[in-house]
Amino acid sequence: MKTTHRIFALCLAAGLPMTALAEEPVDPALYEAAYSEDGRYFNADDIPTYNITEDGTVDWLTFSGFRRYHAECHVCHGPDGEGSTYAPAVKNAAVTLGYEGFFDVVVNGRQNGNSVMPHFGENRNVMCYLDDIYVYLKARGTDALPRGRPAKKEAKSDAIREDENACMG
């Protein structure tokens, strides 16, 4: 697990407050995976990203992100990040906000007029899988992944399983 991701997980596990992070601009040329490490894919700037093969097989984090998004986020933001009458579409959030900006909004929440995004910084069901949700929404926001449950997925790596168990306690 990359250092940034470990810091988020350790702060959460230790009950430390999460601080706001600066937004980072996202270059569309950097969406594709440059390398993988223990079943996770990263772009050239070490930012988590998706990996979808020609036959439609998605990496584990993208598949897990689909599941986690639909367990925690779709109630407000609608299926597949498309929005609802209650909350806006978020399928482009991972693209427009960038990694740190996305983390900041989810961890700390945000208010825009009468619209309120609650903070999830202490919710392990979100925080332990925030990279997964980010990667899934990034794939949706770039139209690399169509609506619906991905039909094929890579196996969950031992490293991802260990990180998940450590974060969830």
TrEMBL record:
Residues annotated as region Disordered?
147-169
UniProt xrefs under InterPro entries: C-typ_cyt_methanol_metab-rel, Cyt_c-like_dom, Cyt_c-like_dom_sf
Q: Which UniProt keywords apply?
A: Heme, Iron, Metal-binding, Signal
Amino acid composition bias (Basic and acidic residues), ranges on this chain: 151-169
Listed GO MF terms: electron transfer activity; heme binding; metal ion binding
What residue stretch is flagged as signal peptide?
1-22
Annotated ranges, domain Cytochrome c: 64-136
- Origin, by domain of life? Bacteria
Against Pfam families, the record matches this protein to: Cytochrome_CBB3 (PF13442)
Q: What is this protein called?
A: Cytochrome c553I
